[in-house]
Design goal:
The complex is a heterodimer of chains A (176) and B (436). Chain A is an alpha+beta fold. In chain A, strand 5 and strand 6 form a beta hairpin. The longest helix of chain B has 21 residues. Chain B has a six-stranded mixed beta sheet, with helices on one face. Chain B has a four-stranded parallel beta sheet with strand order 4-3-2-5, sandwiched between helices. In chain B, strands 8-11 form a two-stranded antiparallel sheet. Chain B is built from 17 helices and twelve strands. In chain B, helix 3 packs across helix 6 and helix 13 packs antiparallel against helix 16. Chain B folds into three domains: 223 residues, 3-Layer(aba) Sandwich (Rossmann fold), CATH 3.40.50; 89 residues, Ubiquitin-like (UB roll) (Roll); 90 residues, de novo design (two linked rop proteins) (Up-down Bundle), CATH 1.20.1440. Chain B has 436 residues and is α/β, with parallel strands linked by helices. Classes of the chains: A alpha+beta (176), B alpha/beta (436). Chains A and B meet through helix 2 and helix 5 of A and strand 4, strand 6, strand 12 and helix 13 of B. The complex binds flavin mononucleotide, iron/sulfur cluster and FE2/S2 (inorganic) cluster.
Chain lengths: 176, 436
Amino acid sequence: MGAATPTSYTDKILVSDEVAEFSPAVIEEMKSHVAKYPADRSRSALIPLLFVVQRERGYVDNAGANFLAKFLNLEVTDVWETATFYSMLNMRPMGRHHIQICKTLSCKIMGEPDITGHICSKLGIHPGETTEDGKFTVSLVECLGSCGTAPMMQIGFDYHEDLTIEKVDKILDGCK
Amino acid sequence: MEIKAIGCEPLQLKRMHVKDGHTLKVYQKTGGYESLKKALKMSPADIIEEVKKSSLRGRGGAGFPTGMKWSFVPKDSPKPKYVVCNADESEPGSFKDRYLMERDPHAVIEGMIIAGHALGSQTGYIYTRGEYKYLIDIMDVAIAEARDAGILGKNIFGSGVDFELHTHTGAGAYICGEETALLSSLEGYRGHPRMKPPFPAIEGLYACPTIVNNVETFTSVPQIIEMGGETWRNLGTEKSGGTKLWSISGHVKRPGVYELPMGYADMEKFIFEDCGGMLRDDKKLKAVIPGGSSVYIMNAGQILGKNVILDYEGLVAAGSMLGTGGMMVMDETVDIMESTKNLTEFYKHESCGWCTPCREGTDWLVKIFNRISEGGGRPEDAKLMLDICDNIEGKSFCPLGDAAAWPIQSAIKQFPEDFEKWLFDKTGSNGVTANV
Ligand SMILES: Cc1cc2nc3c(=O)[nH]c(=O)nc-3n(C[C@H](O)[C@H](O)[C@H](O)COP(=O)(O)O)c2cc1C
Ligand code: SF4
Ligand code: FES
């Protein structure tokens, strides 16, 4: 698959004034999150809304953060302050399929290293990297609450458990 | 993976294998929301009294008596009060809450409404780890069903009691399972813990009185109301009431979620009979972490023939803790230096960075572990790591620091030979050599 692009969370966040736009349906969805909290506590909706921005724009970008600052009446630094804390919020483009392999103890002793090795050699990248065609990003992550069905990985939000090499091949081949 | 009760009727696991048990219809057909109806006719003080009698202790790890916690909420406060469900479940080795939410979401809702009535709260939030998005979707559907049926919202079952419930998502941070960090996160901030006191019961969410309880704690509440606190307590022992869910993973034939009465005898039987014994028959048991990664590791000698009782007191007597009941079993192929390194990497990654001992300490520990596993171990490294642990334990802002120190302290104590091999011979106990 060729050379890879690094995807570290700590890359510099560029500053621009651009403000993202969202469809009326997405705005409604955002409002439904805000409605869960007391009127003067709309900042509570920040993390749920960051997920919406990430879904719509692929990652939390400048324009998306600027939008949230306006939408929630926050400073844009407030948005970044929160966004940069959480490992599921990405500050740079990711592959279409984000493969997150659990590397914590129960998965590790049940065969995680073989699974990781297989996926990485199949895709020609290291953990933390994205394939050149932008299709896959591989990350090693901490326990995802599937220790009883180890080893496991999550692709996007989907759980894949009791993994074997054959199973992994089937799952990856099924990714469009 | 197994999901079943042993030594008791399935209570927590009652609907795990019932078709469509997650729907309101089946939930009500199998007795669901009857406890709520009963509780709505009881006074808040009587509900808290039943929970006290049950000797239910929080199932999120700390084991604090739930009834006592509830009684700390001021009755005369003019501020709104909040009920928060801790569904952050990120402790390595724990996966029980996941199945409760997946297959019995209405039990969580019912427990939270009863808590709301007992505490005079009209609003609840379920804080779920972001990776469990499919569970948030399941909870959202269940909440909508309950709302449509008049079980959530205004004047529940004509009682005059109001309660609204919302889901909320985390975004990948173990520390947000710590209750004050959870509240910071729920307010839209970084997940840093807050100073206690004030405790959340006095000043929690939005500086209002707040109760944070684990998923399994809430799902216990309808059972306690149904059968009475004393009957529920008697399912377990005097001090550890009721039944408890155990998540068991690693080298056993039948990993899974098991419901056991508190006081179950004993750990050896549980591993070797109930869970089918070692995954590979020719491999011996080496180590067990009985309560999730944040408790002391035990060696086989502390378990085999020792009649270790599975409850809060039994595990302390055996040299560890119950924690969240996330039992990780390791056979003789596992090198304990390596497994401890793995968990230390977890704590370094999850340290929120707020206080120096934990942030810097976990970083240094990982650096030392890396050097050792690359063949650069030095005889004095064990003492060096214990020194660093000593500077983290009890000196950090929140219990995550302690939780990072305990695996290392106990591993060096219970498995000195695995560390010595790396520090003197520069190889692992399982024959792995460092790349030098
Ligand atoms: C680092 C850390 C992580 C925690 N993670 C969780 C968790 O994921 N789920 C949970 O219920 N409690 C967790 N706790 C315990 C909570 O702080 C709190 O004690 C618990 O939610 C109270 O509910 P309970 O009394 O019903 O157990 C954690 C504590 C610490 C220090
Ligand atoms: S002990 Fe660790 S997790 Fe807790 S506040 Fe300090 S840095 Fe954060
Ligand atoms: S250790 Fe991998 S899911 Fe828990």
